[in-house]
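Example for tutorial group B:
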C-alpha cells in the first residue's frame, strides 16, 4: 500500500518544477529532504520571488520555523529582515538563541532594533531557568523596568522546568505558590506554551487547571490534542454545556479535534454536528484529517451540500485535499485539484496537497509538488509550509 501511495503521489501530483531542474542543491534536497534543506530551499525561492515582487514573502515565517526547529544559523541569516512589528518571529528567534546559549549572537539585531535582553525577557527567562542559570536570570530580572511581578517570575521558572522536561519539579513549584496566586501562574504558563506551539510541554499543568472557564477549557483541549490524551479530551466534553454560545462554538471545536487525535472520532463528530451549520463541514474535514478515518467522507459530502457560498466551499475543498491524502486517498484528492476553477485555486489546492504529503512522511513527493507551483511567490510559500508541517523521519 505504501509503494502504491508513493507511485500515485508522484504520478498524479508532480509536474516539472519550472526552472528548477538544473539546481543540484534543490534536487538533492528533494531526493532526501530534511527540514533544514527545505527551509533553505524556501529561502532561495523567496529571494528569487523578491526579484519580481516584494509583496508578502515568507521570510519572517522562515525565521519562525527555523528558530522553532533550532536551525539558529539560518534564522540569524535572515534577521536583518525583521523589525519590531515581527513579534512572533523575533520571539522565536530569541528563544532559539537562549536555548542554544547564544544570546550574544543577537547583539547586532538588538542594536539595530534599539532593544536588549530585557526587551525579550519573556522569551529568555524560561530558558535561563531551564538551564539553571540563576545568576543570569536574577540579573536579567533586576535590569527589567518596570520590575516584573512575582507571579510572572514564578511562571518563567515553572515554564523553564517544563521545557527542561522536569514536570515533577514544575508541579512542586506550583504547590509552593499561594492558593490565590496559583491560578494566575498556571494561566501564564499554559498561555505561553500553547501560543508558542509547545502545548505538549504543558501536560503536567492539567491537574492544576481546575476552572471550567472558556479559556482554560480551550487550553486543556489544545494540551489534550498535542499529547493525544483521550481521558483528558473526554473529561472536557461535559463542561461545554456551561459555556456561553459565543465561547462554546470555538472550545467545542477544539475539544472535538482533541478527541479526533486521541482516537474517539465518533464523539468528535457528535460535537462537530452540534456547531452552527456553517461551521460543520470544515470541522468534519479537520476531524477526518486528524483521525485519518475514511469513514467520515460520506458525512463530509452530506455536510458540503449545504454550503452556500463559493468561498466557503473552496476553503473546505482545500482542507479536504489534506484529509484525503492523509487517509491514503490521493487519487480522490487529485480529482479535486484537476477540477480547480482557476489558477489561484489550483495553486492553493496543490499547496495543501504538498503539505499533506509531508505530514504523511512522503517528503520527496511533498517537496516536488511545492516546487511544481508556477508562481514564484506562491512557490516560496508552499515550500515554506511543507517545511513547517513536515514529519521528519527518525534518525
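The residue assignment follows.
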Amino acid at each position: 500500500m505504501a509503494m502504491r501511495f508513493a507511485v500515485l503521489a508522484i504520478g498524479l501530483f508532480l509536474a516539472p518544477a519550472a526552472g528548477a531542474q538544473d539546481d543540484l542543491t534543490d534536487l538533492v534536497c528533494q531526493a532526501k529532504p530534511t527540514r533544514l534543506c527545505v527551509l533553505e530551499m524556501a529561502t532561495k525561492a523567496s529571494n528569487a520571488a523578491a526579484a519580481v515582487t516584494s509583496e508578502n514573502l515568507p521570510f519572517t515565517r522562515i525565521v519562525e520555523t527555523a528558530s522553532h526547529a533550532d536551525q539558529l544559523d539560518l534564522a540569524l541569516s535572515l534577521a536583518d529582515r525583521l523589525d519590531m512589528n515581527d513579534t512572533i518571529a523575533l520571539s522565536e528567534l530569541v528563544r532559539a538563541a537562549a536555548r542554544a546559549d547564544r544570546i550574544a549572537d543577537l547583539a547586532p539585531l538588538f542594536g539595530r532594533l534599539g532593544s536588549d535582553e530585557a526587551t525579550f525577557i519573556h522569551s529568555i527567562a524560561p530558558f535561563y531557568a531551564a538551564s539553571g542559570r540563576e545568576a543570569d536570570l536574577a540579573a536579567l530580572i533586576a535590569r527589567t523596568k518596570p520590575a516584573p511581578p512575582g507571579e510572572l517570575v514564578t511562571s518563567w521558572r515553572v515554564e523553564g522546568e517544563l521545557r527542561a522536561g522536569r514536570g515533577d519539579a514544575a508541579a512542586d513549584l506550583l504547590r509552593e505558590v499561594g492558593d490565590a496566586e496559583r491560578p494566575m501562574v498556571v494561566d501564564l504558563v499554559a498561555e505561553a506554551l500553547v501560543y508558542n506551539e509547545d502545548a505538549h510541554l504543558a501536560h503536567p499543568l492539567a491537574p492544576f487547571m481546575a476552572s471550567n472557564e472558556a479559556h482554560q477549557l480551550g487550553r486543556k483541549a489544545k494540551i489534550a490534542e498535542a499529547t493525544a490524551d483521550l481521558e483528558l479530551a473526554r473529561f472536557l466534553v461535559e463542561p461545554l454545556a456551561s459555556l456561553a454560545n459565543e465561547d462554546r462554538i470555538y472550545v467545542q471545536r477544539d475539544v472535538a479535534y482533541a478527541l479526533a487525535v486521541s482516537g474517539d472520532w465518533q464523539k468528535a463528530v457528535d460535537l462537530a454536528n452540534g456547531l452552527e451549520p456553517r461551521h460543520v463541514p470544515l470541522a468534519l474535514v479537520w476531524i477526518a484529517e486528524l483521525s485519518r478515518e475514511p469513514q467520515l467522507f460520506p458525512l463530509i459530502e452530506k455536510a458540503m451540500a449545504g454550503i452556500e457560498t463559493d468561498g466557503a466551499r473552496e476553503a473546505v475543498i482545500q482542507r479536504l485535499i489534506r484529509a484525503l491524502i492523509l487517509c491514503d486517498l490521493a487519487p480522490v484528492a487529485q480529482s479535486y485539484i484537476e477540477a480547480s476553477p482557476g489558477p489561484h485555486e489550483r495553486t492553493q489546492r496543490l499547496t495543501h496537497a504538498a503539505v499533506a504529503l509531508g505530514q504523511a512522511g512522503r517528503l520527496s513527493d511533498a517537496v516536488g509538488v511545492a516546487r511544481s507551483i508556477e508562481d514564484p511567490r506562491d512557490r516560496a510559500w508552499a515550500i515554506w509550509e511543507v517545511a513547517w508541517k513536515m514529519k521528519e523521519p527518525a534518525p
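DSSP finds 23 helices and no strands in the chain. Compare this with the pattern of hydrophobic and polar residues in the output above.
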